[in-house]
Amino acid sequence: MSGLPQRPPGFVYRTPEIKRVQRSSSSLQRADNSVPRLHCEAIPISSLAEKFGTPLYVYSAAAIRERVLAFKAAFREIDHTICYSVKANSNLSLLRLLAKAGCGFDIVSGGELERVLRAAPGSVKQVVFSGVGKTSAELDAALGASILLFNVESAAELDALAQCAERLKRTAQIAFRVNPDVPADTHPYISTGLQKHKFGVPLVDARSLYSQAARLKFLKVAGVSVHIGSQITDSAPFSATMQRVAELVRQLRADGHNIRFVDAGGGLGIDYCGSQDFRESVGSYAAAIAPSLKDLKVRLLVEPGRSIVGPAGVLLTRVVYRKTNGDKKFVIVDAAMNDLIRPSLYQAEHQIVPVEFNDANRESVDIVGPICESGDFFARDRELPVVGEGALLAILDTGAYGMALASNYNTRGRAAEVLVSGNTAKVIRKRETISDLLRNEVAAL
Ligand code: LLP
To answer: Helix (H, G, I), strand (E, B), or coil: what is residue 312?
Structure first.
């Protein structure tokens, strides 16, 4: 089935069994239902829409597992832990699946810590805590949970952590997140490794901060951390960053610090066109990172989010109406920017495909949601096979930063989420009802 936008092993088009209709003694005929249909693993996606409604996030367990294995294979020559970045998709079932696949976690809030504690308490010892604005309450919770590493992002945070640790009499292992001042070719909102960004501490300040930290009783200097941005598809900035980090590790060791961890952050981009081989891309990513660290005998921590779960999810939506304004054609669907904000926020282009693939006639359309903003679109002037009202569309590669950024804008309940493994499908988050939305509100006065 060449030409079809496939995402094996999670999402593939399959043609149902060809019904063999005997016309004459020798000729066989294809039945009408022989159009390719999108499946998630062994399940036809349309049956999920019927059972659970739309809009619906559908995830493939096999796809997630395969991606974790690809990471492990790529980094096999270096001691490492994959700390999945919870922010990309924080559903409890996915966290449990990832913990079972051997992952630790990268968290950025007390809420994400709580998720790890509920989904995979045994993995809390493999948690790293990043973020520029950790509150004392969040630091206390993380100290109480004995996480692996605090990635400290400022001198002020160092003070706050030292105070919390002293008050609780708990020791915290720390790394400073350094800002390497390396540009990454990605959307400006998700580039983080330049001095003008709020993240990390400048490399030039690092040595004095480390010596300050080493004097604090309940803090233990243990690593160096970095993260230069997200959706980075060129490996050169990763390699430049790691060279700077390796140099810093050498200096810090010379200064007497016991550096055992290098946290390389996340950021490996995915190919939203789906044509790239993931093993190859994670292979070049590892080849950019690992060589600088090889002689240092550190444990490498990586914090991938998008590259693990992005292509493992689709957002399933149904066409509500078609309409034409002058020469513009609109396909109005029941999902909206509150379900998936990436196209409007980052100009992201997700492939959108009909669940029943009939490529006979194509047309150029805008695929839009029902929200009262012109920014509520999934694609503009997109070539799509003609789909009628009631047809199902799948927005691909939405497993990362889809549901995680969903909101209740326009008082829309958030979508349900379903996890598929082989031929079983489980609801891993129920659809939000209007009562869920109004529960904490009062009509005062
Ligand atoms: N580690 C840190 C410290 C991060 O800030 C991030 C992402 C990650 C790891 C994971 O990065 P990944 O491997 O997923 O690229 N909402 C945006 C992406 C925001 C990324 C924020 N930080 C989007 O939809 O593109």
So the answer is: helix
> H or E element: which one contains 66?
helix 61-74
Architecture of domain 61-310: Alpha-Beta Barrel (3.20)
User: Where in the chain are all domains bearing CATH 3.20.20.10?
Assistant: 61-310
Residue 48, SS3?
A: helix
CA angle (20 as vertex; 17, 25 as ends), nearest 5: 160
E strands of 219-312, at which residues? 219-225, 261-263, 299-302
Class of domain 11-59+311-437: mainly beta
Task: Give the C-alpha separation, 121 to 282, whole Å.
Answer: 28
Q: Ligand 1 centre and the CA of 398: distance in Å?
A: 14
Mutate to test the pocket of ligand 1, among 68, 85, 105, 344 (most ligand atoms within 8 A of CB): 85
| C-alpha dist (Å) from residue 389 to 33, 232, 314 | 19, 37, 20
Cα(313)–Cα(315) distance, integer angstroms = 7
Q: Measuring from atom 9 of ligand 1, which residue has the nearest CA?
A: 266
Atom in ligand 1 nearest the alpha carbon of residue 230: 15
Ligand 1 near 67 CB (within 6 A)? no
Stretch(es) of the chain classified as CATH 2.40.37.10: 11-59+311-437
Q: Average pLDDT by consecutive 10-residue portion of the chain (445 residues)?
A: 80 77 47 82 98 98 98 97 98 98 98 98 98 97 98 97 98 96 78 75 95 97 96 96 97 98 98 93 97 95 98 98 96 98 96 90 96 95 96 98 98 98 98 97 94
If residue 45 lies in a helix (H) or strand (E), which one and from where to where? helix 45-52
